[in-house]
Amino acid sequence: MSSGNAFVVIMGVAGCGKSSLGSRCAQALGVPLLEGDDFHSVQSIGKMRSGVALTDADRHFWLDVLANELRTRKSVGCVLTCSALRQRYRDHLRQAVPGLRFVFLALTPAQARERVAARPAHLFPVSLVASQFEALEDPSHEPGVLRLDATAPLEALEADVVRWVRAGEPVGPVKAAP
């Protein structure tokens, strides 16, 4: 079953599982996957690999690119993986696609550090995890946001997201049932 025109951002700090969940949800919903990390500039990738946190200016360029990518997929929908740490970043993406929904994969700083340390070939080093939590503005109070425990089994997370997307746009913030 396809959920054409579904637009969902899988968001959270580094190590929360955006790529793993995003891939599964895109396949289950029958929409393309956009890996947000694939759209960082060469300069931003270099900064992250060097252990330098991105600035709002670095992220603004990236968010412009992602917003444009979302707009070009209005007829088909997509699942986007993007940290979307601040509300103004999420609002920037919402301007591209009204009704855009976000799945917030929540975890603790210790859990994020452990997960990032387990993937040494990734462009994002453990040393930057703290900066992600410093920038994070919890979106749980915003409409169109589903907050999930990032440590739940991937199959359960996928099922929660697919069920939520297929049910339609919620009126306010929601949390998955335990």
How would you characterize the overall build of this protein?
- The chain has 178 residues and is of the alpha/beta class.
- It has helices at 18-29, 42-49, 56-71, 87-96, 109-117, 129-135, 154-167, and strands spanning 7-11, 33-35, 78-81, 101-106, 145-149, 174-175.
- Strands 2-3-1-4-5-6 form a six-stranded parallel sheet, covered by helices on one side.
- Helix 1 (18-29) crosses helix 7.
- The model is unreliable at 170-174 (pLDDT under 50).
What sort of overall outline do the alpha carbons produce when their principal axes are compared? Answer: globular
Helix % is 40-55%
Alpha-carbon distance between the two ends = 26 Å
**Largest sheet features:** 6 strands, parallel
Estimate what percentage of residues fall within beta strands.
Answer: 5-15%
Order of helices and strands: EHEHHEHEHHEHE
Distinct helical segment count? 7
Physical arrangement of strands within the biggest beta sheet: 2-3-1-4-5-6
Low-pLDDT ranges: 170-174
Radius of gyration: 15 Å
Helix/strand-derived category reads: alpha/beta
Tally the beta strands: 6
- Please tell me the overall pLDDT: 86
